[in-house]
Design a protein that fits this description.
Oligomer: single chain
Distance between the termini: 70 Å
Length: 362
Amino acid sequence: MPTTMQGKGETWLEANECAARIGLSKRALRLYEEHGLIRPRRTQKGWRLYGADEIARLHEILALKRLGLSLQRITALLQGKAVDLAGILGIQHDLLADQRKRAEQGLALVRAAQAKLAAGTSLTADELIRLANEANMTETTTDTVAWKRYEQARPRAEIKLDPRRFERCTGFYKHPAGLIMAVTLEDDRFFLQLTGQPKVELFAESDSNFFLKVVPAQLTFAPGEDGGIDTLVLHQGGHDTVATRIDEAEAKRWGNELGERVRNRMPDPRSEATLREVLEQQQRGSIPFALLSEELAELVREQQPIVSAELESKGELQSLGFRRVGEDGVDIYEAQFAGGALQCGIGFGQDGRVHTLWMRPA
């Protein structure tokens, strides 16, 4: 009997051919079936047949394995859920595009360095730093961030939770970016509000796990040694950010301090010099990793080609003019370049690094 069958316009592969063409062993196919990840059809004689749906699922499994996930983690992520081929292809596209971009940037830097050395010219400290950051491609977090984003974007299943079980989660939490996260219970509904942002509703997955519908993000409330909730973990953008519980008095004190900064237009004393350095480095095509939080550094890396091209088109930075403090505590400046202006926002976290950075037309 041939190992490939045609039926109702679709091709079906027996286990031998499916494994050979995809690059797996029959044992691996059986293992994935045992974990409930694939469910091949059976012929009357009991032979397994694999069609487009099963092969799409295998593609998902292999892609997640290459991102470093264990089979147990993949099973927890995919079991009982529909194939999301578009999502996994998007992740693969982004990873491959990022690898190609970084390889091209690294090759260009290496060629430029080789040309300078061949001409008898020494490399500057800035050039050596760029080689260390880009040409060596030492940052390995991109794939981890990618699969976390994929996991965070998966559909979530809401459960009904007794509001009394949520009461232990309510209160105030301090985000590393310096924002206050207020968690409240209102008429049997759960809400989250970050400083300077609108209130959003939370939906329960379990007693301690909740998700948002407005954005692909989740919250986990973690108990301390005494059993009370003392931390909140925000899962968003491929990162897990821990916020620590604070009391209402501290939350009010922080809010009053921010209100005073907003009313009196008082920028952080570090913001102008740091923003200038960030803009000048990005204009040169480098990324100021030492100044940025881990989460922000990853975003800046992804957007670097677009940002560098925009800044390069603007020409030399001529001045930075402070405008105001935003409701979220971000200092807002107008950056005047030889060829135009940009409005920029910069905010610092508790670790002294930049956690918020944005630019838009002035």
